[in-house]
Known about the structure:
Layout: E1 7-12, H1 23-27, E2 33-35, E3 40-42, E4 64-69, H2 76-79, H3 91-94, H4 99-119, E5 145-154, E6 164-170, E7 183-187, E8 201-204, E9 218-224, H5 238-244, E10 251-258, E11 271-277, H6 282-294, E12 303-309, H7 318-322, E13 330-335, H8 346-352, H9 354-362, E14 366-372, H10 376-390, H11 395-404, E15 408-412
Parallel strand pairs: 11-12, 11-14, 12-13, 14-15
Antiparallel strand pairs: 1-4, 2-3, 5-6, 5-10, 6-9, 7-8, 7-10
Helix pairs in contact: 8-10
Bound molecules: NADP nicotinamide-adenine-dinucleotide phosphate.
Amino acid sequence: xxxxxxxxxxxxxxxxxxxxxxxxxxxxxxxxxxxxSRNYVVDAAKCKLCYNCISPCPTxxxxxxxxxxxxxxxxxAEQLLWDxxxxxxxxxxxxxxxxxxxxxxxxxxxxRIAAVSTAGQGGVAPPPWSAAHPYVNLYGIHAPAVxxxxxxxxxxxxxxxxxxxxxxLDFGNASFPVLEGQTIGILAPGLDAHGKPHHVRLYSVxxxxxxxxxxxxxxxxxxxxxxxxxxxxxxxxxxxxxxCDLKKGDKVNVVGPYGTSFLMPNHPxxxxxxxxxxxxxxxxxxxxxxxxxxxxxxxxxxxxxxxxARTAAExxxxxxxxxxxxxxxxxxxxxxxxxxxxxxxxQDLIRGRAEDVVRLLKDENTYLYLCGLxxxxxxxxxxxxDICSRNGLDWKAVQAGLLQQGRYHVETx
Length: 413
Ligand code: NAP
């Protein structure tokens, strides 16, 4: 006897590829995605197949599907234990299926997926129209690129509270093309508390596309040694401590590159409005250095930077930054912990430069980048709303336009 059974297209996350960046969980409008210390998982009962999470995922781990009899969908508890995705079950073994159900369910879903990927707007901003083509996912965890450390320099003063390092990785003969704004994944050696290999940690590339040293096959990272979590509890960051302790000549397993959105425009006259805190300065350094090396001031647009750190001694690249000519870049530094001085944040300086910032916002050639601490997003958003309303603009409308046109890019953690 044949029983009609509903076949569902179950949305899953591939634990082998997932880099645990939390983007999918943040994007999901119905809270169907959750995680524990090991895996990110999708609740089949909540997922509405809106596909909003598909496009923002840097690795494609999110784009995993299995056709399942609805009543046999993989429960969360089972997904949380996976080290790899199970294969596709043979449906006629898993359930007695009414032939019409399978035929009706699948083509429609396939079509919906195609529609979403061609729209390319599933929750992630498009790149600037003139951005160069980014290469992504060239190396995965099963076949990482092996880079050699060619430098590891402390950027912060010896007596500063944070140890921030500029780490240069050389790829030798391996092809590892990156653009400013892209990230790479680091595989720290060793095992986690579950006896599994550590998952991938992402870092923004801090050097321009032609290398930390021009025409060398290398790149740089800006890494802060993590010694406490966001609540101030003592923890030892696995990848950051591994990276900060590397010596010249050490080998590092690298995956990626990742990122197709947070990219810089390449057309003449484009302005960069960059806002960052701490090590969120990495992509801003890459973009600024790209512009500096290209150096065709008559053609290039404006560069305006708002950069927040605890003190000057804690600000990565403080020395080189302050030596850049004023006509090349308009630098605004906010220090929050200078003894005897009031706390200053990037959003305070944005308010202070309202007229110039609004002028840039009104220019259709302006591209806005925000990178660093998650907490600054709200403050910066309020500052933009404030200065816009004082100048006859509606920030929400301006922001929506910027997003749609690939002119507003945020990377905060
Ligand atoms: P940090 O030193 O802790 O803070 C930098 C500055 O931001 C300090 O002046 C701090 O002020 C200020 N700040 C704190 N909360 C703020 C808020 N709500 N609004 C505005 N400013 C605020 O920064 P960090 O440890 O370097 O953190 C940088 C972040 O960038 C991390 O979350 C990291 O994951 C992320 N990131 C790193 C990379 C990379 O490649 N390394 C790339 C992208 C993003 P207080 O004195 O009040 O603390």
